[in-house]
Predict the 3D structure of the following.
Amino acid sequence: MYESMLLPLIVALPLASAAVLAAFRNRWPHRVIGWAGTGVVFVTFLLSLAAFAQLRGLGGEGVLRWVFSRWEIGGRPYEWGLVLDPLSMWWLLVVTGVGFLIHLYSIGYMAGDESYGRFFACLNYFVFAMSLLVMADNFLGLVMGWTNVGLASYMLIGFYIRKPSANAAQMKAYLTNMVGEVFMLAGIAVAVIRYGSITFDAVFQGVQADPGWATAIGLLILGGAAAKSAQLPLHIWLPDAMEGPTPVSAMLHAATMVTAGVYAVARLYPIYQASETAMTAVATVGALSALAGALAATRQYDIKKVLAYSTMSQIGYMFLANGVGAHGAAAFHFLTHAFFKAALFLCAGIIIHELGGQQDIRRMGGLREKMPFAFWTFLVGVLALIGLPPFAGFFSKDEILAAALNEGHYFLFALGVVAAGLTAFYNTRLFSLVFLGDPLEAPAKSGKRKHRREEEHHDHGHHETPWVMKAPVAVLAALSVVGGAFVLAVDPYLHPVFARFDAREVHVHAPVWAMALILGVAALGIWAAWALYGPRGSRRQAEQRSVGAPAGLLGRAFYFDEIYELFVYQPVLALADLVGHYADPRGVDGLVNGLARMAYGLGGRLGWLHSGYVRRYGLTLVIGLVAVLIYFAFYV
Amino acid sequence: MVENGYLALAAVLFALGGVGVLLRRSPLISLMCVELMWNAANLAFVTFARMHGNMDGQVFAFLTITVAAAEAAIGLALIVLLFRRREHVDVDDVHSLRG
């Protein structure tokens, strides 16, 4: 335990910067805002590295702490503080490091946008919220980070405020996350009431002594984690969230924010490990999401939506790892995924930027000669995502599937392997349709129409990509190649965290046959996609000639939106109709209007007293006077 | 007792004023009758002051005169306004405040 002043600094710096940038967003020139916002995140990253050095200096068991406030309710002490142990350090370094690269990229990508300052203020605010989330040492801090992250996501998805589809998407994301948050708060309430503390460590000790409530807490918090991490059945917001600018998709909806659920489950591992049911639920949700996301990704036409469903699928793998007890593998896959998925998204951003706002992969094709830089970096990202050795994704995905196998979850292992094959399939399809084959003649304007503002800003034909956009992509692509080397570091590094509350030891080394199987299935996926969508593939022409939104079971992603429309949206609307047309006008208004009518009627009855004739009033007075006189004369 | 005579006079004046207010339809006459009632009350006050041998009733009479002056001013103003709005004035014509 070591009090470190770096911790509050890491959280406060991006927040202060967000406030300053928001205040001066329309006064400072764009160049100042962009570089100030990026510089602050870079400094935060350096501070995180300093904290990392400090943490390493403490040795294996040490953690950095900083207590902000202590108070007492009903004689019980409570504490609110920040903590950096190897697990939160792992997340913090990715959040600030990848966050810095994406800020840098945004300087170029957002250039010329009229709301440049608002964008950087929101992005800095997100870095603050995410660091708070991963550094909290208690449930309250976790929820504060969680909610702020949700708000940042809301503001950034709807960044193009004049675009109705972006407004709808931000609302959808926020409401879906609210559903999850209700579950999460319920779970936390149970934990706090049952174990009498908001601090993680105290609750974990309570769970170890009395694991009776672990299942309930674990399942409820899984609800929140599934919503934030776009897992079944609360994943519906993620594809729509692609309405935000591409750097936002890369940062929030691929690399960092959506992994908050993975972090929460890994952070709360003593609760989950105390309950077999909760663990199985996490693993099942993860494996099914991995499969469903990969299936849906095979039929999307929007380059960003393919990547969005792919994110859902990859986070499914992380949940699977958490569910079988391999929290280290989950953290490792989070790291490699952050590298290659951010690289892919930023690369997609370069393509969209250069094509003047075109996102439809049917209108691309043959971009290899036109954009060699994007071609190579995208290739690296795709290979890492498919999980071919020696790219980073191979090592992390392999660990997860091996853990599932070694823990005896054969069915989930099979789901994961199938999802790996599908991952290879949709990535090959995506890559081939975008970069290979002949360039399409005169890309028509019939693609997905973008928001007028973004269109104006991108719509000047071919754009040169500035170095600020290329450099982050290059760095991330390089990390996608060599990131697999962390395989040697992750387990020994995270071991002290998981040893504290006796997490089970999970072997993450796959037998040779399993490794061969995974690679074989991936190769099969690549081959199938090549046969269908390769430069001379049989389905390629038909695909490129098709128009409109993706249809069918996979294109509509298993009709989840339609199901929710039918079973949630419509009933709620019907209920609102009922309340609006009957309960409110007849019930509430009826009561109020009834009272008013009663008073009115009573008033009408008494109205005859007020004839308006002055002399009658006078007579009333005299009668009153006579009555008083009679009373005094005879009764007093 | 000579005071009883004054009190009787006050009662008669008051009754006359009240009957005038109730029976006459001209607002001006009504106002004059109200003045008559005021003065009947004043007379009673002064008489009682004399009977009790202190100044309380006298003071009250002065207060009444002041208030009556104010009342007359407002009442006359109302009547002037009524005359301006309508040629012919009858208190029974003014009943727009009927409930």
Q: What stands out?
A: Chain B has one domain: 2-91. Helices of chain B lie at 2-23, 27-52, 56-85. The mean pLDDT of chain B is 88. Chain B touches chain A through 14 residues (CB under 8 Å).
